[in-house]
Amino acid sequence: MKANRLNRLLLLCVFLLSGCEDSVPGSSQFFGSNNYPERLSEWGLVWIDANTLRIAEDSFIYTLNTPLFSDYALKLRTLRIPKNQKATYDDNESFGFPVGTVVSKTFFYRSPNGQSVTLTSKWDGTLDNLDVDKLRLIETRLLVRQETGWEALPYIWRGDDAYLKVTGDLKELPITGTDEKIPYLVPSRNQCASCHVTDHTKGLLLPIGLKARHLNHTKTVDGENQLTFLQKTKQLSGFSSPADAPANADFNNSEETLDRRARAYLDINCSHCHNKKGPADTSALLLEHSGVDPRSYGVCKPPIASGRGSGGLLYSIVPGEAHSSIMPFRLGSRDPAEMMPELGRTLVHQEGLALINQWINSMNGRCI
What is the C-alpha R_g of the chain? Predict the structure, then answer.
């Protein structure tokens, strides 16, 4: 009898301790569509502890060969796949993920005083140097895989936590050392679809960066290929080897060819709209990384309907003449009626623009 009581007491203790573990950050809970939490920390994915950003142990920090430009914001990207389940590999499209998968992307800037922001893209991806006192945390966007598909949730940082705000927000961010401010737009839940609905016929949200060509690299803390890691940890099925998978260039890597760097830059920044099924398919300008002939990605291609966006110029790309080409004109504009991409930036990405100018100026040929 005493032994039975002792066993029941031990079971009760285990139950209570398990409940406590599930209630603290790091336990990585999953929520249904009807009960999303107000605070980001309740997800147990990303939170602040001892003045440092932390992530759950069952999450995977990933980076992209060439990242999308977002007004020089730095980004901490994480992927959490449910235990004992796997993503499905695809050579070209977004991987297939099981229900319960959560992708997070935290946007932040270096900040000398917690208010003004420093415009730099330099960050090695490690967490041990992210002192919250020296950061300006802006937002964390979640993509949550439900039974009906992916759902987007914007959380806005305020103090030591981020709070769900489905309507998004607009923040004025002073730039360190200048009188200028960034009108930083946190997208609403509906605006997320502007980029993440990469197939406008189906109308379904999909991750943009979780594709083989963006993940296939070894620029990680331990030098291990990201796809190999996911396979080794039994989180990815259908993958053979990095050598057999496509890989985009790092647009900053001068050892890569100029063409590969420029195509990788346009792919990550533009092809979620400019593809055969995307929202910009009617433009006939296709900016995916490969399998597209020069005229389709803009060489001597006149605009179909761009209005002021053409800048009075005749072709998207004029070989050898970046100054006469529509593409760099739109990348270099901050006018909402002219600029591309239309969402996700208010500043000009000077490094990206310089790369595209160099690429176009290196081309041979003429438009007749």
Answer: 23
Would you call 175 exposed, middle or buried from its count of C-beta atoms within 10 A (0-12, 13-18, 19+)? middle
Helix, strand and coil in the chain, % to nearest 5: 25, 20, 55
| Residue whose pair of structure tokens reads 């730095």 in the numeric block | 74
Instruction: Please provide the DSSP assignment of 167-232 as one string.
Output: T-EEEEEEBTTSS-EEEEEE--TTTTHHHH---TTTT----SS-SHHHH----STT---HHHHHHH
Q: Give the chain's length.
A: 368
pLDDT digits (tens, 9 = 90+) for 219-276: 988 899 999 999 999 999 999 999 999 999 999 999 999 999 999 999 999 998 888 8
Alpha carbon distances (Å) from 278 to 146, 197, 299, 325 = 23, 8, 20, 23
Six-digit token string for 161: 């936590």
Burial of 37: CB neighbours in 10 Å, binned 0-12, 13-18, 19+: middle
> What letter represents residue 62's amino acid?
Y
Reported as half-sphere exposure (CB side, CA atoms, 13 A), residue 224 has a value of: 12
